[in-house]
């Protein structure tokens, strides 16, 4: 069985087991499905196709015995000529004198290393005696941690496969394997770790992409079905008249898109089934205005409301603006980690007694000691910032409250419906009229000082600026260094004429909040930051967003960063400093300068999507999979969605014996999706 601890495998003791545990590898099953995150492909190409400075693989016959020379302290250099396509290529190898004995004139060898096209020379870092097994060899690359090396993982996987391969049971019914020509689960698992060639690997990946999507879609659609079927009797009988009056007191008219979203939400509230709805719209499109009218509707139905946001500052801002909007129509309180002791207890008692109408807070909202009298409507802002568990707990705070998730992440509509299969989706796709669009410019780095002078002038007029550096995921250190260097440059440039602040991921949450608060209060004029600023804090005086190395961000993230400025009276500017090398990179910058509409942008993005990371994976708000990628493998996702729908419609999981294993797997496995319920 595959759920045995890793220590049952040959050669794995307590120590290694502990190291593996830190990588979330506990069982044999975890080992088998710890897939490489990428592959290095060595392909033997004709000499004249080799590119200077590339890592290449060649095969040939050794012309003379290697000669070994020593230099420096304990350093050696082995060199020998190799006949490749009748051309003498020079091979050099450093500090591997021991290889001299193994390599003799007349031997066939396969060499991998860096190619010097001018000297026809290869600096070898990997060699194999004999010809290459195939024209292509594929090296799996695993992500590793601590004491665990790539080699250890490979050995462990090999071990696990040897003993347990036959225990990897097929979970997909045969019909799918046949109609999509997919390898079995056992075959595909082995291939993922030890691929023989590209074609084989492609099919193994295809299998897991489909499997992941199908499981995901089944989970989503089952969830949605059960929500629809199980919740009855939570109709919120709100007072239409009063809700209308409430909307009329807004100092503006709702846009058509806002009206439509509002109708959809109110209809859900009135119905007996529990709302589970996603409200998408650009920053400033008026989501919160709609949400507050719906909160009010809930209050007129005699219920309480909750609004959960990711940070304390954001919570404070929401309380203030809601209090302004509601006046004496509702009692609204703030509940964050800073509300402690007696104050917290008094507040919680009031919530329990129903003396409070609306609670706004961070995850402090979902602590065990928070009990609502009758929670009817819960809103989760910036939904992708909360984990699955947190959102589930919030939902269970009331008797099936209606839940509205709000997000400013622009996801193409078609994708959103598929990605959030358990939710209904409302979209606000227009901005209130009269809004000044943010002007976006794309410049090169050598204009930085000119730009800084421009910023200096705007600051004299009471405006503020963000300067954002990209997050370099592999290297936290480098990432901070970038921000620190830039901060130093700005400090030197402005001397003491204005205040520059610095924020990055290494600061504690409290420190971050503190810096952000200084910026909100206007004590910092220019804030240099890594991407931690993306959360929707409102700084009305912030008019300029400078994004450094903009080509490193996904389009949707660029757009969200841009949404941080131009929220007040004055026009906003977004300056992209970028020197993209690729055509698509340039295209992305052009799109940014040409469109201000998040949905348009995300549709373009979907079209443009190359092999790359347009959405900037982590920031997309889409769930993440081991092998599959929602954007890249969109067509497989659609197929899986249809298949899941028909499986559920015909109840095949229970009616058809060939679906029994799949059903078991779905039920037994806690399939966990990072970004989604
Ligand atoms: P979001 O939550 O989508 O970022 P908000 O609801 O906070 O947007 O709205 C942003 C700003 O625009 C607020 O100051 C709000 O009062 C204002 N606003 C909202 N809807 C409209 C509208 N239809 N017309 C004009 N201004 C609006
Ligand atoms: Mg309802």
UniProtKB/TrEMBL annotation:
EC number(s) per entry: 5.6.2.4
Xref: SUPFAM superfamilies: Nucleic acid-binding proteins, P-loop containing nucleoside triphosphate hydrolases
UniProt key word ATP-binding: yes
Q: Where is the Helicase C-terminal domain?
A: 447-607
Domain Helicase ATP-binding: start-end pairs:
268-428
Question: Per its UniProt entry, which superkingdom is the organism in?
Answer: Bacteria
A single Gene Ontology molecular function, please? helicase activity
Keywords assigned by UniProt? ATP-binding, DNA damage, DNA recombination, DNA repair, DNA-binding, Helicase, Hydrolase, Isomerase, Nucleotide-binding
| SMART domains on file | DEXDc, HELICc
Which reaction is this enzyme known to catalyze? Couples ATP hydrolysis with the unwinding of duplex DNA by translocating in the 3'-5' direction; ATP + H2O = ADP + phosphate + H(+)
Gene3D superfamilies referenced in this protein's UniProt entry, alphabetically: Nucleic acid-binding proteins, P-loop containing nucleotide triphosphate hydrolases
Q: What class of enzyme is it?
A: isomerase
Query: What is the documented function of this protein?
Result: Plays a critical role in recombination and DNA repair. Helps process Holliday junction intermediates to mature products by catalyzing branch migration. Has replication fork regression activity, unwinds stalled or blocked replication forks to make a HJ that can be resolved. Has a DNA unwinding activity characteristic of a DNA helicase with 3'-5' polarity.
Which protein family is named in the record? Belongs to the helicase family. RecG subfamily.
Tell me the protein's name: ATP-dependent DNA helicase RecG
Task: Please give the organism.
Answer: Lentibacillus halophilus
**Mind giving the lineage of the organism this protein is from?**
Bacteria, Bacillati, Bacillota, Bacilli, Bacillales
* Gene encoding the protein: recG
């Amino acid at each position: 069985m595959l759920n045995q601890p890793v220590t049952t495998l040959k050669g794995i003791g307590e120590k290694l087991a502990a190291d593996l545990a830190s990588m979330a590898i506990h069982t044999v099953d975890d080992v088998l499905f710890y897939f490489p995150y990428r592959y290095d492909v060595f392909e033997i190409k004709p000499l004249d196709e080799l590119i200077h400075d590339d890592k290449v693989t060649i095969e040939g016959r050794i012309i003379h015995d290697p000669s070994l020379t020593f230099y420096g302290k304990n350093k050696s250099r082995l060199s020998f000529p190799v006949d490749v396509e009748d051309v003498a290529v020079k091979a050099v190898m450093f500090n591997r004198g021991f290889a001299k004995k193994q390599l003799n004139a007349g031997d066939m060898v396969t060499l991998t290393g860096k190619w010097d096209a001018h000297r026809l020379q290869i600096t070898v870092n990997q060699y194999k005696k004999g010809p290459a097994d195939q024209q292509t060899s594929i090296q799996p690359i695993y992500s590793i941690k601590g004491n665990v090396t790539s080699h250890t993982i490979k050995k462990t996987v090999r071990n696990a496969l040897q003993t347990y391969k036959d225990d990897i049971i097929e979970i997909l019914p045969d019909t799918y394997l046949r109609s999509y020509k997919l390898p079995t689960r056992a075959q595909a698992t082995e291939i993922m770790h030890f691929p023989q060639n590209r074609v084989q690997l492609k099919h193994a990946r295809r299998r897991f992409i489909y499997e992941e999507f199908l499981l995901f879609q089944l989970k989503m659609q089952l969830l949605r079905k059960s929500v629809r079927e199980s919740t009855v009797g939570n109709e919120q009988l709100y007072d239409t008249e009063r809700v209308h009056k409430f909307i009329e007191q807004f100092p503006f008219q709702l846009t058509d898109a806002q009206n439509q979203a509002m109708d959809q939400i109110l209809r859900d509230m009135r119905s007996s089934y529990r709302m589970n709805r996603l409200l998408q719209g650009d920053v400033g499109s008026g989501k919160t205005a709609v949400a507050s009218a719906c909160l009010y509707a809930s209050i007129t139905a005699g219920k309480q409301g909750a609004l959960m946001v990711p940070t304390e500052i954001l919570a404070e801002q929401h309380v203030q603006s809601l209090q302004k909007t509601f006046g004496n129509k509702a009692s609204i309180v703030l509940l964050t980690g800073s509300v402690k002791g007696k104050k917290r207890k008094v507040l919680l008692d009031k919530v329990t007694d129903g003396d409070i109408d609306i609670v706004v807070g961070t995850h402090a909202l979902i602590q065990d000691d928070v009990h609502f009298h009758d929670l009817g409507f819960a809103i989760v802002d910036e939904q992708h910032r909360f984990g699955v568990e947190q959102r589930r707990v919030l939902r269970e705070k009331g008797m099936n409250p209606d839940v509205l998730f709000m997000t400013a992440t622009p996801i193409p509509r078609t994708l959103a419906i598929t990605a959030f299969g358990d939710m209904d989706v409302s979209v606000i796709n227009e901005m209130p009229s009269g809004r000044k669009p943010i002007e976006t410019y794309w410049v090169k780095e050598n204009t930085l000082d000119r730009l800084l002078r421009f910023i200096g002038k705007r600051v004299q007029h009471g405006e503020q600026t963000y300067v954002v550096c990209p997050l370099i995921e592999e290297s936290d250190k480098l990432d901070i260094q970038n921000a620190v260097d830039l901060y130093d440059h700005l400090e030197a440039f402005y001397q003491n004429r204005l205040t520059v602040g610095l924020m990055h991921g290494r600061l504690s949450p409290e420190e971050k909040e503190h810096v952000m608060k200084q910026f909100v209060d206007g004590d910092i004029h220019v804030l240099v930051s890594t991407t931690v600023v993306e959360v929707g804090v409102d700084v009305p005086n912030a008019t300029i967003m400078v994004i450094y190395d903009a080509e490193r961000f996904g389009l949707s993230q660029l757009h969200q960063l841009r949404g941080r400025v131009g929220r007040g009276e004055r026009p906003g500017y977004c300056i992209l400093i970028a020197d993209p090398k690729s055509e698509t990179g340039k295209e992305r910058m052009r799109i940014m300068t040409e469109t201000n509409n998040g949905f348009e942008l995300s549709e373009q993005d979907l079209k443009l999507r190359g092999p790359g990371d347009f959405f900037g994976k982590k920031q997309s708000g889409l769930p993440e999979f081991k092998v599959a990628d929602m954007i890249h493998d969109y067509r497989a996702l659609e197929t899986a969605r249809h298949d899941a729908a028909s499986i559920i419609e015909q109840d095949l999981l229970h009616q058809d014996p060939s679906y029994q294993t799949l059903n078991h797997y779905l039920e037994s496995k806690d399939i966990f999706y990072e970004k989604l319920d």
